[in-house]
Specification:
This protein has about 240 residues and is of the alpha/beta class. About 25% of the residues lie in helices and about 20% in strands. It has a domain of about 150 residues: Collagenase (Catalytic Domain) (3-Layer(aba) Sandwich). Strand 5 and strand 6 form a beta hairpin. Helix 3 crosses helix 4. The radius of gyration is 19 Å and the shape is globular. It binds zinc ion (ZN). Zinc ion binds next to helix 4.
Length: about 240
């Protein structure tokens, strides 16, 4: 056996260990059943925030895990995400702009899909992530000024009954404004979808999709730091998506 072949055989088990962090094949085969009932999680029963002291205080090199905020019930991630995107009209004067918006959002979703098990659904009742073609309303700030933005993601925690089974689920509404050029829509969608899939925090590095302050040029590719942070997050235990014990 040549040295090169031996090295390749050694590398394979390492890959097999690394992959299940993001895609546990046993749990990813679930489809996206309709929500029969859904109500806000009120903090009883399952789920509790990970103790603050278990969070990394220091900025590690290579990712920005230290800025991530868990929800009150724990890390808001799922073994599989069901995603609904607002349909566009293919006729009439607005069709061209709506299609442009859809293409930009699809390009952003495609990048996340390379690293997360996502399933697209046509019924919002089947989704945990809902993407709407809408400019977010202005946020009122303390000083009385209103801050405008082109995208926003809002998280709520829900107890949801699907196929007769109650699960704790994150529900994220993502608003992406169509009133931007295509590259800006795509960068906005990449960033807001990052929040939707659990990255609730902002990177200090403007080269990351999840940058707090975007640089002059829109970031259109997930950076190695974005992906390393995502891998760290999905290696943590989470109460979401599981039926009660
Ligand atoms: Zn953000």
């Amino acid at each position: 056996m040549g040295a090169r072949l031996a090295a390749r055989l050694l590398a394979l088990p390492l890959l097999a260990v690394a992959l299940p962090l993001l895609a546990d094949p046993g749990r990813a085969v679930e489809v996206c059943p309709l929500a029969q009932t859904s109500r806000p999680w009120v903090g009883s029963g399952r789920g509790s925030a990970p103790p603050r002291e278990t969070l990394p205080a220091e900025a590690p090199s290579g990712d920005y895990r230290q800025v991530l905020e868990p929800s009150a019930a724990g890390w808001p991630v799922l073994p599989q995400w069901c995603v609904w995107v607002e349909p566009v009209s293919l006729e009439g004067p607005a069709a061209r702009f709506q299609l442009l918006w859809l293409q930009a959002v699809e390009a952003a979703l495609g990048q996340w899909q390379d690293h997360l098990p996502l399933k697209r659904v046509e019924d919002p009742q089947r989704a945990q992530v809902l993407v709407r073609r809408q400019r977010p309303p202005r946020l009122q700030q303390a000083a009385g000024q209103a801050r405008a933005s082109h995208g926003r993601a809002s998280l709520s925690l829900q107890d949801t009954e699907r196929l007769g089974v109650w699960r704790l689920e994150p529900r994220v509404e993502v608003l992406i404004s169509p009133e931007q050029r295509r590259a800006a829509i795509e960068a906005t969608a990449l960033h807001e979808l990052g929040h939707a899939f659990g990255l609730w925090g902002h990177s200090p590095d403007p080269a990351d999709v999840m940058a707090a302050v975007p640089g002059a040029e829109p970031v259109l590719r997930l950076s190695p730091r974005d992906l390393a942070t995502l891998r760290w997050l999905y290696s943590k235990p989470s109460p979401f998506g599981s039926p009660p014990p």
